[in-house]
Amino acid sequence: MRRLRERASAVLTWRLWLTPGMGVKRHVGLALAGTVLMVLGVAGAALWLLGGHRREVSTPIETVLVSEGWRAVGGYASLALVIVGVLVAIVAVVRLNRSLLSHWVARPDRAAVFLHERLSLARGPRVVALGGGSGLSNLLRGLREHTSNLTAVVTVSDDGGSSGRLRAAFDMPSPGDLTDCLAALSDNELEVTRLLQYRFRRGEELQGHTFGNLLITTLTEVEGDFGQAIRVLNRLLNLSGAVYPVTGRPVTLLVSKPGGEVIRGESRTRQCPGPARAVALEPEQPEAVPEVVSAILAADLAVLGPGSLFTSTLPPILVPEVRRALMDTPADLVYVCNIMTEAGETDGFDAYAHVEALARHLGRLPDVVVLNSAPVDDARLEAYRTEGATAVEPSLDQLRDAGLEVLQLPLLGPGPVAQHDSQRLAGWLVDLARRRAATRKAGLLP
Q1: Where along the chain do its domains lie?
Q2: For residue 37, pLDDT beyond 90
Q3: Does domain 124-441 have CATH number 3.40.50.10680?
């Protein structure tokens, strides 16, 4: 039974070589055409060499071709020869590919599966996701299953923990959120995550730092530029997409509170009670990484959120070039609203308050707002209540009165944290991107 399953799996794997887009059928056809030409050439050369003795060769052949036996089975025999020839050509091409790929692929017998997946992902929609924190990295894990035309634009304003220490020591942007996103898009996510997120527990200088933060810092010193360091990591980690910092310059987040207080630094935002009113960057006009602007302008879909509204989602759009690109892009702008509020940041905010804060900082409303429709269980509600957080009210009437397309989807993921189910959310976003791209291609959208 096991051997039968293995053979069935092998047949299905071979079938993948002939699926559209693999670029193998054309080579099989070329191999067959070459074989036919070779046979014709050999036959012509033989007839030429035989000269006057050709009848001695052709007569037995003609005898067979006019015989009763050939009349009965000749067609079937010819068809069988064609089928065998095609199969031999396919096997030859497949084995040649496997032989060549064995130097780069750990399991060459799975090369067809590997190439088929890569080509399918390469035909996926162009999606740009902006933000930071666990919300962005969680979303990327879902999106990478649907497309490799994926760009993560990551905030670099964190000034706490390991990132804060490295910022102060090396005058560089925060590497922490980038580390999580790089791990999320790596083809070897489990191993890379364990490595990049390993936190040193010993050594006076290393204690508290993650290896990923130290790696980015080291590459920044070697390359002499933070943006170039991340470009190198994109190549080294073989990502399903790309990860870029929104800017290659160190920036500080300034958070304004309703009482007029201005909190300097992301890590201090929650030290002053009450919701945030606005955020700004210092310096006010940092240069954007060029790849970020290009990706936004070429995107089919741009996604903001989920994530901490004032400290993860809004900081990337405060970079002037990024804000202009989001205003000019033909892509639909989707805002994924958080499931829960955050104490010291969005206390008492409903969904409309989230969108209003986004529009105030960006200068435009999103095209689509995504809300979770699944109820949060009592256990999780109680856990968040102790932190001063509550479930975000949908405020559907206000959103629709503002002319927004609102979608309520059951997106609550499992576990103790009220986090979006990345697979469901990513599947819906990619489906939206494909539908809008097809509609735009048909000329029904600008």
Answers
A1: 2-115, 124-441
A2: no
A3: yes
